[in-house]
Amino acid sequence: MFGPSVVWKVMLGAALLGAASGFIGTFAVLRRRALVGDMLAHAALPGICLAFLLVGSRELFSLSLGALATGLLGVVCVAAIARWTRTSQDAAIGIVLSTFFGAGIVLLTVIQSNPTGHQAGIDTYLFGEIASLQSRDLGTIGITALTVLFLVLLGFKELQVLSFDPEFAAAQGWPTFWLDLAVMTMVAVVTTIGLPICGVILMAAMLITPAVAARFWTNRLEHLLAIAALIGALAGAGGCLLAAPQLTATIGLGWLSSSHGVPPGPLIVLAGTALLMVSMFFAPERGLVARAWRERKLRARIAQDHLLRALYELGEKEPEARPWIDQHRLMHHGHWTPSTVPFRLSQADRKGLLEHQSNRVRFTDRGRALAAKLVRTHRLWELYMVEDWRRSPELVDRSADAVEHSLPEEVVERLEALLQSEGRLPATSLGEVPESPHPIEP
Amino acid sequence: MSVAPSIASKKVAPTTALEIHDLTVAYRHKPVLWDIDLEVPEGKLACIVGPNGAGKTTLIKATLGLVPLASGNVKIYGRPYREQRHLVGYVPQRETVDWDFPVTALDVVKMGTYGKLGWFRRPGAREREWARECLDQVELADFAHRQIRQLSGGQQQRVFLARALAQDAKVYFMDEPFAGVDAATEGAILRLLQDLRSAGKTVFVVHHDLQTAEEYFDWVILLNMRLLACGPVETTFTRENLHKTYGGRLTILDQAAEAVSRRSPE
Amino acid sequence: MFLALTNPFGPDMLPLLLQVVLLASLVNVSCALVGSFLVLRRMSMMGDALSHAVLPGLVIAFLFSGSLGVVPMFLGAIAAGIATTFLTQALHQYGHVSTDASMGVVFTSFFAVGVVLLKRYASNVHLDVSCVYEGSLLWLAMDTETVAGLEIPRQVAVVLPVLLINLAVMTLLWKEFKLTTFDAALATSMGFSAPVIHYLLMALVAMTAVASFRSVGSILVVAMLIVPPASAQLLVHRLGPLLAVACAIGVFVAAAGATLAIWLNVEPPGMMAVVAGVVYGLTVLFSPTSGLLSRALFHRRTASRILREDLLAMLYRVHEHDADQRLSLHEAIDAVGGGAAARRAFRSLRRQGDLRQTVEGLALTDQGRATASQLVRTHRLWETYLVEELGLALDHVHEPAHRIEHFIDEEIREQLAKSLPQSAEDPHGRDIPE
């Protein structure tokens, strides 16, 4: 579809557009209005057609003005329907989207029956004509992107409080209706600039996907905006790369390229989706892999805690501090599957908490200190529960199981002080392991 | 918090902090609050008490101009709310916002300063310092940089309180700050309310727990679609008044509201 | 631009018109059936999402089966529809993404995959993307076969089964659909799995979308899924009638859209979407129950009723105060606010025979007196209620009573009378009329 000389220009254009739509789309997504972008993109068709009929040329600026006019009319219609009728917001969006688009198709057939308009097919509108990007269009996109950036930075705190808590914003005296309209207008402007170049579906995706992907990387709105813009730009540039045959052939993806008739629009969408998947799985902290990893580590620690406590309880009655315990006894002591015990033991061994001797294990000094701390937390909680929650001693064991891994040290100390002040602990035993309130199973 | 001692705490004649006159609110022509008239002097901890659907939240929202009034007016320190916005702090119900929103606790508290900053001025070092102090007041200084989802329910509630403190207001409206919080938070909130009172602030709290209402507050507003009583706890929080508020004698009022909405356009 | 006008009812066009209307009606009715539940469940945009997202299912089904047969097409669409629903839900649940955003991400990605597959592997098929968008109703309607002496479009063989399946499922699972739409939690607690019904509905939507969009295009599918049910929602309040009205609107839209399209020589699907939008707009304005116009009229009627009642009650009170006093027409009209509305109220009262104009001034007839005494009774009972039961101050009760007297009917009034201590006087010490 395009040669090497154009490819850089096209990539720059797509990247700029991706950045602008990712940036402003973030607010649409946060305001729970993600699909308004989809509606805007569809509602722009009659405007584009009307502008074409009036001006008679495919110049980006006039087409965009037309698109903006009907797009904003659509936004107003949705707001009016939601305000004045019993129709819900989502149905309102669907009604406006399909009706306006239908009107657009009608106008399009009118254009196509005109001798001057035969080349402006619906394909162009659906997927855009990114290859026909002119340097002047680049300028339009750049100026739009900069304007949106400037306006958002200017009103950052207003938009932040509006998006987070509109009611509080209203109570503080901000004109929430007008601020909302300003955001929607910016979304509409970016959409309409991008539409003739990138097409309907691409614009809907470019407003939503970067913001969703960026959300996995950060917990700050400032960073979210920047990352969404970056992801938008990467998706735009990446999609164009995939569509350029000379470049993709060298990396073995030539079958995707536009020489086989694949337009760049869907490829840009898919590049964005790929970035979203990477973010969703591999982002630190919020990513699924990181979350699964944390979950796994937590479970391993809980299993280790249980093992240490069991070893402590089994050796508690022995005269020496670190008696040898038979592995077999350990396997049948706790609430675990016996077959997992050897693995847990070897893990604890590797951490230097235990030492092995043929079939027997015993604590190292460090292991014993750790186990004593756990048992202490466990039993203090049990003592507290028996008395204060009036639970029977047999039942408190399981509840303490759940608590002992996460009770902070200061709570344990408060608990100890409380129990001591009520005379339920001997006065000398601060920091020591109390007696278990229930018999330990052999 | 460095709060300048207000006039009231110097024991001059008490001023009226909130004055509501003939307030009626209707949703889709169905009256939910009828002809409310009340006055609350400065420096009181006032609780708004009433059964579910009594219009407690609506009373606060109407006062803050968040829902349209069918009739009546609201005055803060003798002047319309619009002119006195800077004197008012607001704590909405916790469920009204998206706690997954990408902001930290400190960001949320900073939002309290936005009203005074005015259009387009960014919060600077001074606002950040002030927001930190407010977070410290609710004992959450260590959590300033946590994303708000990572806070417990009670901590989220305290972040909202800190945001209201950051508004540096004279009159506070809090919608169920005690709902669903742990004992530690309840204690912290109560201490905070008492601090506010001793600084001469007036606080309105929507409250559900009749057991603690008498103990925590010194002024009470009994509400059930209309005002049943408004006055000092000792004289107003009586068995008889509570019976009127919660008793079933308001069915006719309810039916009348239904009739009005039925015979009005949707 | 010049439109070449064609007479749609001319002998050369009428058969085509009928075929287009037949095909489009079948499509619209099956869309309206499933769409009603989408709209009631507040997931209208799922219709938009699914009608785009079925594309890859369709293309893959084609690539595997090598034909555009009905069965592989439906299977592909249902698979894509269920995948979309599942992924939207998964992204929402595991990625903490809001539902609308996750829907947007999933359907745009699916559509993009569909387009890439189509352009890459199936570009020679008669299934190009713009046709997915606009549909090719005219061509399909012209492609007919003679069945029992009638020219029936072949495409009917695709859309009719879908309609029948939709009807059958709705009939069999009527109460399940109704219950899960109304209260999913209750339904689940009663043993009807809400998620199963949800997925079933989505599969039906996907199937309907794919069967329809070759004829009318995906965006018109969205229009037909959402607009007729949304209009019906403004007209009726019960589920059964809602579905019936939505289907009727669908048929009307097909007929009117096709006629206009042939007349103006434009694409019928686009025209149908426009007609649907116009129907919705008219419903918003003129619906007898919730239309803006009927509400405005009702408002006006209520206002003038209040004015008439005020006029009557005032004359009653004047008479009560001093039986010999008569207000002149001018004084009376001024007392209720004056102006044209008050004069109209006066004229209509005189026409109804509630009052008459004598030489001394205005007087109530017996009929007018009876009405007025009931109004004054309501007013004073309400004042008594406010003072006795709610402890309001005397100077605060007139205004509310003045407003409420126009809205309280006999039942509430007598209940009010019963609940108050028997007293013949209101708090101001005036008689409460019987």
Structure description:
The complex is a heterotrimer of chains A (442), B (266) and C (434). With 442 residues, chain A is an all-alpha fold. In chain A, 72% of the residues lie in helices and 2% in strands. Chain A folds into two domains: 4-209, ABC transporter involved in vitamin B12 uptake, BtuC, CATH 1.10.3470; 292-421, Arc Repressor Mutant, subunit A. Chain A is built from 19 helices and three strands. The longest helix of chain A is centred in the last third of the chain and has 28 residues, at 288-315. Chain B has one domain (8-262): 3-Layer(aba) Sandwich (Rossmann fold), CATH 3.40.50. Helices cover 37% and strands 24% of the residues of chain B. In chain B, the strands form two sheets. Chain B has a six-stranded mixed beta sheet with strand order 6-7-8-3-9-10, with helices on both faces. In chain B, strand 1 (16-27) and strand 2 (30-41) form a beta hairpin. In chain B, helix 3 (105-117) packs across helix 4, helix 3 packs parallel to helix 5 (153-166) and helix 4 (125-137) packs across helix 5 (153-166). Chain B is globular. The model of chain B is unreliable at 1-11 (pLDDT under 50). Chain C has 434 residues and is mainly α. Chain C is 73% helix and 3% strand. Chains in contact: A-B, A-C, B-C.
What would the average pLDDT of chain C be, to the nearest integer? 85
**How many runs of DSSP E, i.e. beta strands of chain C?**
4
Number of domains of chain B: 1
Distance between the termini of chain C: 74 Å
Largest interface: A-C, 67 and 66 residues
User: Which architecture name of the largest domain in chain C does CATH use?
Assistant: Orthogonal Bundle
Low-confidence parts of chain B lasting 5 or more residues at pLDDT below 50?
A: 1-11
Q: Key features?
A:
heterotrimer; B: about 270 residues; alpha/beta; about 35% helix; about 25% strand; disordered N terminus; C: about 425 residues; mainly alpha; ABC transporter involved in vitamin B12 uptake, BtuC; Arc Repressor Mutant, subunit A; 4 strands; about 5% strand; elongated
